[in-house]
Amino acid sequence: MIVFQTEHIKTFNYIVHHFLEVEIFYGANIEIVNDMSIADRIEDLLPKYLFREQYFKCLKVFKELFYWTEDEFYL
Description:
Distance between the termini: 10 Å
Radius of gyration: 13 Å
Shape: globular
Number of strands: 0
Strand content: under 5%
């Protein structure tokens, strides 16, 4: 879970998680989605120079963000 300074922490995490699941990972299991298909979607969101220079880091960060927003612990 990502901690947002708001009382709507569950809602924000759900929105971010759902966006990543639908738009980036195609609603499939993140473990079986091909890195190239993820990269194609990320490339549309980020500036080209950033994506080219930080390709593997971008993939890693989007996957981590997906996992972090999936957590169910609360403050």
